Request: fold
Amino acid sequence: MDDHCSRKLLLQFDGGSRGNPGPAGIGVTLATPEGKTVYELAEFLGNHTNNFAEYTALIRGLAAAVELGATELVIRADSQLVVRQIQGQYRVKSPDIRPLYQQAMALLNKVPKWSISHLYREDNSRADTLANLAMDGRTKVEFRPPAIAGK
Reply:
């Protein structure tokens, strides 16, 4: 990618667990500012907590954004806990979640400009649908448009 070119992407993610802990899955979407989907992921994680699933979804989305060369990333999620921890408003107290938080922050350090904000569940329907697809099917489905797949 040319250094003078900027690549802005919108990342939305969701993680869920049926039971907490229980069968867990994640949904991730990456799109251009114009709304063109450049990446989607639905992945079953096995038995985990909801917070583990939320952080895993964020990490998978960040890794894909970095791989796609994002120079600016707008992140939106319905997990108020994750959003506020990434913003620095809440401390990460759980020893199980701290390594995931650190991994997410390390990936964010690879993106020159980023922001994260909370959105309501109804505004995160695609990521939620993907997370439920993963839990229902106990599977992983990854989508990359052909032009992106070769990168």
